[in-house]
């Protein structure tokens, strides 16, 4: 063990009381200390904060930490202060400070006491702050929740857009560490480009959560009863039920209470006192279940949440992953149960209308992934991990049998010929269609787009009409996960052949497929309010 390693371990013990690093932390920290640009992609709970906190404490100068969430910044500052003998070690710089407080922050920085300075991106637009920060020694800059910089992230924040310029003004050669828990390959690329650090060393932890069990059930008009039954089967365990609307949160919380379940509602429309009370009740186990909108969860660190139920399907796989990720943090059981009806997707699409076109296209593409996830019959875990750019083998991977589709597999059929037909159609149409239109071409149904390209006059139009639309959609999803096709993100999902796909056309081999689940479109009539 080199001296640097020994020092890191003792610093870890000294400041945080931990006896070892988690996952990739040590490699990340070394890279930051060496002064390189660094990009960290780790799921929530992976221990990202330490990746910049420890180097900040060790290095000379002050580290600037950009974070979008004021409440979380305060928590972090408190936590750092608790392990230091000087409160000045960490500060938040924001618009709520008065003159005396600002002076104190500046003095502590100038005196070399402050190792971590948390700022919201909008505070960095203040000339006065930028000028000050230019004049002091900055060790590095950490950009937390870096996905906020990308329109393809689930939480785009325009004020993150300018960060690169502001950071450059503070110092041209100050190293940057970007951190995120959500990174599809497209978001990763956006972050590296937008922060001007394409040279960054990237550290990506696995997103696999082997202890979580994933399940999707059809959402019928009996969804409330289904939820009650599930909770009663899990009596005494802690869980979260996510709903889309505040109204639904209130109603469902009441329904659960009437049925003898200790449940409380949580949404941004409740006053702050009630929200804190309900959150504390959940943390202190005075209630078992929180029925909530997505306002609930950020920064809530309850390790033994045993189930997360989605009464309404979320608007992206990122959101789904984030929300289900709150289950089983302690490594114990965590059941993730989502109720799905296509009508809910239509509802979410309606919310998007009226937004700028690019935003709608992105929102639509993200929703299509949710549909694919809900309807697929391949392993849910494999699907999610593929979405995050990670290959997963159910035979050898941890948690390989932990989802409904793997436990109750659908019968598989040989689809070698159909895959060939599909790939050839992608090729013959010069890779210009998204899944839905491509399927229309295959089954021989024209639409405005198809006829504008005159694809409906070509000999292969309708080549697969002996099979239903549903079959072809399912096949496309499975072929995507198998890596024979890929979706082009820039065009919001146009299908392109991969090298593997091209090879398959020339040299087809066995391809076993399972049909998707079929959800009864009528079954949820009048359910959601
Ligand atoms: P993230 O920001 O990736 O969601 P956090 O930084 O909040 O994760 O860390 C998650 C939890 O793991 C925290 O409770 C933190 O104290 C703990 N933790 C981080 N690093 C270590 C470590 N090396 N050993 C033990 N616990 C750790």
Question: How are the SSEs placed, and which strands pair?
Answer:
Layout: H1 3-16, H2 25-33, E1 38-41, H3 48-58, E2 62-66, H4 70-82, E3 90-93, H5 99-110, E4 116-119, H6 127-134, E5 138-143, H7 163-170, E6 176-180, H8 185-194, E7 201-204, E8 212-218, H9 223-233, E9 238-242, H10 246-258, E10 263-266, H11 272-283, E11 289-292, E12 305-310, H12 317-324, E13 334-340, H13 342-352, H14 357-375, H15 380-387, H16 404-407, E14 412-414, H17 416-428, H18 435-443, H19 448-452, H20 469-482, E15 485-488, E16 494-497, H21 499-506, E17 512-514
Parallel strand pairs: 1-6, 1-7, 2-4, 2-5, 3-4, 5-6, 8-13, 9-11, 9-12, 10-11, 12-13
Antiparallel strand pairs: 14-17, 15-16
The protein binds adenosine-5'-diphosphate.
Adenosine-5'-diphosphate binds next to helix 3.
Cofactor: Zn(2+); Mg(2+)
Protein name: DNA helicase RecQ
Domain Helicase C-terminal: 222-379
In short:
This protein has 529 residues and is α/β, with parallel strands linked by helices.
Give an account of the 3D structure.
The structure is a single chain. The chain has 529 residues and is an alpha/beta fold. It has helices at residues 3-16, 25-33, 48-58, 70-82, 99-110, 127-134, 163-170, 185-194, 223-233, 246-258, 272-283, 317-324, 342-352, 357-375, 380-387, 404-407, 416-428, 435-443, 448-452, 469-482, 499-506; strands at 38-41, 62-66, 90-93, 116-119, 138-143, 176-180, 201-204, 212-218, 238-242, 263-266, 289-292, 305-310, 334-340, 412-414, 485-488, 494-497, 512-514. A seven-stranded parallel sheet has the order 3-4-2-5-6-1-7, with helices on both faces. A six-stranded parallel sheet has the order 8-13-12-9-11-10, sandwiched between helices. The chain has a two-stranded antiparallel sheet with strand order 14-17. Strand 12, helix 12 and strand 13 form a beta-alpha-beta unit. The longest helix is centred in the last third of the chain and has 19 residues, at 357-375. The N and C termini lie far apart (61 Å). Residues 18, 21-22, 25, 42, 44-50, 301 line the site of adenosine-5'-diphosphate (ADP). Its EC number is 5.6.2.4. Keywords: ATP-binding, DNA damage, DNA recombination, DNA repair, DNA-binding, Helicase, Hydrolase, Isomerase, Metal-binding, Nucleotide-binding, Zinc. Its cofactor is Zn(2+); Mg(2+). Residues 29-201 form the Helicase ATP-binding domain. Belongs to the helicase family. RecQ subfamily.
């Amino acid at each position: 063990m080199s001296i640097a390693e020994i020092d890191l371990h003792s610093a870890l013990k000294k400041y945080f009381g931990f006896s070892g690093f988690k996952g990739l932390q040590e490699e990340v920290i070394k890279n930051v200390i060496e002064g390189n640009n660094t990009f960290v992609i780790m799921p929530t709970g992976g221990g990202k904060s330490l990746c910049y906190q420890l180097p900040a404490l060790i290095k000379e100068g002050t580290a600037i930490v950009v974070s979008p969430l004021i409440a979380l910044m305060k928590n972090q500052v408190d936590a750092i202060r608790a392990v230091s003998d000087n409160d000045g070690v960490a500060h938040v710089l924001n618009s709520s400070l008065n003159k005396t407080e600002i002076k104190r922050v500046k003095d502590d920085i100038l005196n070399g006491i402050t190792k971590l300075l948390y700022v919201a991106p909008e505070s960095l637009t203040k000339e006065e702050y930028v000028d000050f920060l230019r004049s002091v020694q900055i060790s590095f800059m950490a950009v937390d929740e870096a996905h906020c910089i990308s329109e393809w992230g689930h939480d785009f924040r325009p004020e993150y857009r300018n960060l690169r310029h502001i950071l450059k003004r503070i110092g041209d050669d100050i190293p940057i560490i970007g951190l995120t828990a959500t990174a599809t390959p497209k978001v990763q690329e956006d972050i590296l480009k937008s922060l001007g650090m394409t040279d960054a060393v990237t550290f990506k932890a696995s997103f696999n959560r082997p202890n979580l069990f994933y399940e999707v059930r059809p959402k019928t008009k009996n969804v409330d009863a289904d939820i009650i039954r599930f909770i009663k089967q899990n009596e005494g365990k802690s869980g979260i039920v996510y709903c889309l609307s505040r109204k639904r949160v209130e109603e469902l919380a009441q329904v659960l209470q009437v049925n003898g379940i200790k449940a409380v509602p949580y949404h941004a429309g409740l006053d702050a006192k009630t929200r804190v009370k309900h959150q504390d009740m959940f943390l202190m186990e005075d209630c078992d279940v929180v029925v909530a909108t997505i306002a609930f969860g950020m920064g809530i660190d309850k390790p033994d949440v045993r189930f997360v139920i989605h009464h309404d399907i979320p608007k992206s796989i990122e959101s789904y992953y984030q929300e289900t990720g709150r289950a089983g943090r302690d490594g114990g059981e965590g059941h993730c149960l989502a109720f799905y009806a296509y009508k809910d997707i239509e509802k979410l699409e309606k919310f998007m209308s009226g937004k700028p076109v690019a935003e709608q296209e992105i929102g639509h593409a993200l929703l299509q992934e949710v549909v694919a996830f809900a309807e697929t019959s391949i392993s849910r875990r494999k699907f999610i991990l593929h979405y995050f750019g990670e290959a997963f083998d159910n035979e050898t991977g941890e948690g390989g049998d932990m989802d409904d589709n793997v436990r109750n597999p659908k019968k598989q059929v040989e689809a070698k010929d159909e895959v060939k037909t599909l790939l050839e159609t992608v090729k013959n149409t010069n890779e210009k269609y998204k899944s839905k239109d491509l399927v229309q071409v295959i089954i021989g149904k024209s639409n405005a787009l198809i006829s504008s390209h005159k694809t409906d006059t070509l000999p292969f139009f309708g080549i697969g009409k002996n099979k239903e639309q549903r079959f072809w959609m399912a096949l496309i999803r499975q072929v995507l996960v198998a890596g024979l096709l890929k979706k082009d993100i820039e065009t919001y999902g146009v299908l392109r052949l991969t090298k593997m796909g091209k090879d398959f056309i020339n040299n087809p081999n066995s391809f076993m497929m399972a049909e998707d689940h079929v959800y009864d479109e009528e079954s949820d009539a009048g359910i959601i309010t």
